[in-house]
Amino acid sequence: MAIEVRIPTILRTYTDGAKAVEGSGDTLAALFTDLESRHAGIQARLVEEGQLRRFVNVYLNDEDVRFLDGITTKLTDGDSITILPAVAGGMA
């Protein structure tokens, strides 16, 4: 099963600069475990205590996984995952 994972600039140090990598897994958690096996350290930047980190947004085919089943969201062959760090700030 091939799933494309788009990697934000801040996490590309874990993927040797690759903007996108392929992974596999039947859930988002399994996909992150698969990515960790080839890109050591990336999983800790995405997951904390079995849940998505608060300031990481993950989209499955343009749907926010927080509104699906979070880390247990089911995946299928050909899905596309986009990881985006949350952005905060502005003028006070």
Automatic annotation (TrEMBL):
Question: Record's InterPro entries?
Answer: Beta-grasp_dom_sf, Mopterin_synth/thiamin_S_b, Sulfur_Carrier/Prot_Modifier, ThiS/MoaD-like
May I ask which residue range the UniProt record assigns to the signal sequence? none
Q: Which Pfam families match?
A: ThiS
Family annotation (PANTHER family): SULFUR CARRIER PROTEIN CYSO, SULFUR CARRIER PROTEIN SLR0821-RELATED
Q: What is this protein called?
A: MoaD/ThiS family protein
